[in-house]
Write a structure and sequence with these properties.
single chain, alpha+beta, 4-stranded antiparallel β-sheet, 4 strands
Length: 154
């Protein structure tokens, strides 16, 4: 009867091939799920590590601070550079955040927070009439040493 209908033989052959390879396909799906879980876990760990090591600077405007539209646009590009400086960090951990607080004496304070990889960009003033203060001590700069092979030293 299968010879009477066109294409039935091809469908039956495909069904037999799928039935024979089902255990292998199931193992492949299981391995892909495990790999996706491990990748997601590693990504979450990297984001948590980036969130635990953040740099915070205080932005203090001068008395004549009055930004225009072009100045605000430049400051927006400056904030975008923070994300670019932390390129290897997952998006969740590389975000720049602005914190506004009010002290007991009624003064408003503005803090800019970002990943430690972008500390140099965070310390650059986004506006010409804004002073950037670092509340905590800046991390020490470690020198980089490049080792040479013994053959290259001779």
């Amino acid at each position: 009867m299968s010879a009477e209908l066109p294409g039935v033989t091809a469908v039956l052959d495909a069904a037999h091939l799928i039935a024979r390879s089902a255990p292998y396909l199931a193992a492949l799906v299981l391995l892909a799920g495990i790999a996706a879980g491990l990748i997601a876990r590693r990504r979450r760990q990297r984001a948590e590590a980036a969130l635990s090591a953040r740099v915070r600077v205080e932005l203090v405007p001068t008395t004549s601070f009055n930004p225009g539209a072009e100045t605000i646009s430049r400051a927006g590009h400056h904030l975008a550079r923070i994300r670019q400086a932390a390129r290897d960090i997952p998006t969740r951990g590389a975000a720049a955040r602005l914190h506004y607080t009010v002290t007991a004496d009624g003064q408003m304070r503005c803090y800019l927070e970002g990943p430690a990889f972008a500390a140099a960009v965070l310390r650059m003033p986004p506006y010409a009439e804004v002073e950037v203060r670092t509340p905590q001590a800046a991390p020490p700069v470690h020198s980089v040493r490049f080792g040479l092979a013994k053959e290259a030293r001779r």
